[in-house]
Amino acid sequence: MNAVEGRWNTQQRNRGERLARARAALGAALDGKVVQSTHIVELLHQVLEPGDRVCLEGNNQKQADFLGKALTRLDPARVGGLHMLLSVLSLPEHLDVFDRGIASKLDFSFSGPQAGRLAKLAQAGKLNIGAIHTYLELFARYFVDLTPRVALVAAEMADREGNLYTGPNTEDTPAIVEATAFKSGIVIAQVNQVVDKLPRVDIPAGWVEYVVQSPNPYYIEPLFTRDPAMISEIQVLMAMMAIKGIYAEYEVERLNHGIGFDTAAIELLLPTYAAELGLKGKIARHWALNPHPALIPAIEAGFVESVHSFGSELGMENYIRARPDVFFVGPDGSMRSNRAFSQAAGHYACDMFIGSTLQIDLQGNSSTATLGRIAGFGGAPNMGADARGRRHPSSAWLKAGRQAREGRNTIPRGQKLVVQMVETFREHMAPAFVDRLDAWQLAEQAGMAIPPVMIYGDDVTHILTEEGIANLLLCRGEEEREQAIRGVAGYTPVGMGRDRRMVENLRDRGVIRRPEDLGIDKRMATRDLLAAKNMKGLVRASGGLYEPPKRFRNW
């Protein structure tokens, strides 16, 4: 090899050196690509080098937990200063590596249950946050400037050659593996089983260096299951307003829902209230959505035609298998999810995102990052953003665009509907509406370049509370926008600061609409409208195909 040739393949040569070290150290513990689980720490010591970028698969649901625990047992003197790339921080081990000095830098999307601890570690200087990404943004950077040197992923099964079967919870695996494998990186997969023949090949063996059968199946969280018994009558009222005042008004056919009880209420009102309004076949036909159990009655009623999913949901496997016309199901009978493709679908192919938040300010900016918690955003910034690159029309997109540009001499274009659906007060009577987001203070504390805003106000088209709907598309100027937000903020300090005359004027113009303006009788907003009133009702609606996790089986 001459000097010129050596200049261009340093990554490949370094990869070869790492693999050679592993072969020499593991000996008989390595059978082809299959590594004995008792030797996983030694394998990591051999293939990792100080300062490596390491992508540990931690999705909304599927977790490479065995590999994550192995990382925490590494010697920081040998492989310290790791730069961790994680979609979701959900397990203690995801932060233990920082506490123990094994890792020092973090790029991520969502932290959920680890949000409080993450904030403390950042304030203590034990971890440096590169950026808080949306999922699609993080995946994109894997292929540009955050390419993993080593990827630790999870799958259902592997064969002895190293082919992987990811099953219904494919989630982030393809994006992680492809970026790593084709940039001279090393891919290690933990699997529940090593078998002779796979149901299908989701990741080819040529992209995988090592496979280890975990002593226990990987951890998976039923994140998208909402018990209908927990839905309140206020949420039923808000769901009625959403269906009549937004879904029907714009004829929204392609959409994404958040994961709260408020959107679960909408899903459970489709076969009842929406059907009574004659909306079947006119709204909510195509979804980018995890297989929410609350969607079962709407599927059975014929409202839902297709669902492409970011990931799966525990207990829904048999139901999905029995409904291949609706879900993306392979010849093996199991669904294939893909978070990157579903994020792209939610960004470009959906006409509406409707979800919730923890705080909204007077400009309509919203965030789930509050004092003492750095929660991240997951996919909401892509779901809840107007895709400026979109060019294909739909009635909902065009109508929203006309409203946004009414009276302005601009070239015609559409706009995505982005709806924030919140009760005016959150738990512990914390107001959802604030003059200034906590995100500003968090940015100052953590040394962030910009405050961690989840959805920017100029992307938000509607704010829906128990007080009514504020259509921000119809606002002309910042003052009207502020008063529209105050007008649905209820008895929060922000709401009490409204200009009553201006709010009534906005109501006369239809910018603000109360339930009675929509022809909704509040007395009808009862739990009787829910197509299923508890988990047993969802099981019954599925014909017994849905099998809820034990924690939800309360009968």
Describe what this molecule looks like in 3D.
This is Malonate decarboxylase subunit alpha. Helix content is 33%, strand content 16%. With 555 residues, the chain is of the alpha/beta class. Strands 1, 2, 3, 4, 5, 6, 7, 8, 9 and 10 form a 10-stranded mixed beta sheet that branches. Strands 13-12-11-14-17-18-19-20 form an 8-stranded mixed beta sheet, with helices on both faces. Strand 5 (103-110), helix 7 and strand 6 form a beta-alpha-beta unit. Helix 10 packs across helix 11 (261-276) and helix 18 (478-487) packs across helix 20. The radius of gyration is 25 Å and the shape is globular.
Radius of gyration: 25 Å
Low-confidence stretches: none
Distance between the termini: 71 Å
Name the shape in a single word: globular
- Treating each run of at least 4 consecutive H or I residues as one helix, how many helices? 21
Helical content band = 25-40%
Q: Describe the largest sheet.
A: 10 strands, mixed
In terms of DSSP E residues, the strand content is 15-25%
Q: Structural class from helices and strands?
A: alpha/beta
Q: Which descriptors would you attach to this protein?
A:
555 residues, alpha/beta, 10-stranded mixed β-sheet, globular, NagB/RpiA_transferase-like, Malonate decarboxylase subunit alpha, MadA
